Amino acid sequence: MEISKVSKSLGGKRVLKGITLRAETKRLILLGHNGSGKTTLLAIILGLLKPDSGSVRLNGINPLERRDKILKLVSFAFEKPKFDVNFRVRDVYEFLKNYAESDCLELFWNEIELSKIKDSKILELSSGQTQLLHLMQAICRRSEIKVLDEPFSHLDYVRAGIIGDYLVKKGFQVIMTTHVPEEADWLADYVVILKDGELVWSGQFERLSEDGYYEVMVRGLYVPPGALAKVGNVYIVKSTQEDLEKLMQEGKILGYKRAGVRRHYEVY
Ligand SMILES: Nc1ncnc2c1ncn2[C@@H]1O[C@H](COP(=O)(O)OP(=O)(O)OP(=O)(O)O)[C@@H](O)[C@H]1O
């Protein structure tokens, strides 16, 4: 994926400020706090939104020029899907049988247990159930790239775990957003951290650890020195263990861990 100097204003606000990125990777995660511009950037990558300036190429294709190719290449799920058709869950499942990988449908239907709500009207589903149905169409439809906007935001840990592990096992090319560092740690080959519409860090997640970053939980509104970005209730902070211990003793932070360490544990 190549993103070159992409800027975008919405409602008079500069939402993306000159994002440049070139990454050849399997699973790219856009990590950032609420309102940092993740969904806007996804929409631009898909060609659903035109940038004010700059350009995007996804697997060599300009999404604004070759909409047909992008729609074949990509399937996507946005966080707040709106189904406004009067279908039942089983209608979606039956429809997808013609377009989807059968092992994937099997996973959503049986292991994830969508079959248990097969007779429910999709307009009457809970947010988590709606998200699962939307993920089923995005992940199972035959496509090279899965673009997923906060795919686990309404899911329980068990179902999120099953779906995340499946994405890794199948080796799909994935571009997804999250504001949960653990999800980046777990799934990403490559992480892009956005803060207020700017790209503040990008690279392999474990490099955060090598670069001396920690994930820090703060007390109240305290902002720790060296903060790179805030994601969810966690700051990503460049610091030392000694300084963080001092902040713990002063009661300013509640806890910390090395950023991007999980893969290190796997290695040893
Ligand atoms: N259609 C719009 N009109 C005006 N402002 C918008 C519009 N869409 C998004 N914004 C603003 O752009 C900023 C970035 O929004 P975006 O949805 O890209 O952020 P995000 O990082 O995906 O956030 P979240 O994690 O909350 O989903 C926000 O401040 C939002 O209010």
From TrEMBL:
Keywords: ATP-binding, Nucleotide-binding, Transport. SUPFAM superfamilies: P-loop containing nucleoside triphosphate hydrolases. GO terms for molecular function: ATP binding; ATP hydrolysis activity. Pfam families: ABC_tran (PF00005). Residues 1-221 form the ABC transporter domain. The keyword Oxidoreductase does not apply. This is ABC transporter ATP-binding protein. It comes from Sulfurisphaera tokodaii (strain DSM 16993 / JCM 10545 / NBRC 100140 / 7).
